[in-house]
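Lay summary

Proteins are chains of building blocks that fold into shapes. Our project writes down both the chain and a compact code for its shape. Here are two examples, one after the other.
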Amino acid sequence: MGSTSDKISGKANELAGKARQAMGDAVGNKEMEAKGVLQEAKGDAQQAKGNAKEAIKNVVDRT
């Protein structure tokens, strides 16, 4: 996956995780809330991976 697709997938997971957390909180479902936290963390990691790929590409392009 390229850096842009990692960032997009990451943002989608982050937003879905936040929504899942909110839904779990609204209905009092702690398991759903916890899964939302994990999904949001996964999205953050994907975005970080995309940023790292982009940074490496920028360094390589400059040389």
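And here is the second example, written the same way.
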Amino acid sequence: MDDSRPAMTHEELLSIATTTVSLQTANRALGIRRSLGYKLAREDRYPCRVIKAGAAYRVPTTDLRRTLGVPELLGQSA
């Protein structure tokens, strides 16, 4: 991931159609550098819930949006 990319907009966050996102995507949304994001995930200090699946880290999309104060779309089922 290129750490110089701007953080995600609310529209980009709402356009995510998957239930979880990669840690790299969550880092970008939160404006966290890649190395710091992995460090926080390893130390269980990431700003929102992180799921470790084998060697990969996944972040629930709803938790990411909630952490950033981005409301869910109306009529969207949980």
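What can we say about the second shape? The radius of gyration is 12 Å.
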